[in-house]
From TrEMBL:
This is Uncharacterized protein. It comes from the Bacteria. It comes from Novosphingobium tardum.
Length: 45
């Protein structure tokens, strides 16, 4: 019986992937909102 089980590493990997996806979605949404707020008013002038 080893110190760490493969299931533990799998859980860490799944948690890391979910956290990374959530962080990327959050940052991407903020960046998109900033770009849209700068581009759309300039296009309407």
């Amino acid at each position: 019986m080893g110190l760490f089980k493969p299931d533990l590493f799998r859980s860490f990997l799944i948690g890391f992937l979910i956290g990374t996806a959530g962080l990327a979605a959050s940052i991407g949404g903020e960046a998109r909102a900033q770009i849209v707020s700068h581009v759309i008013p300039a296009a309407h002038q």
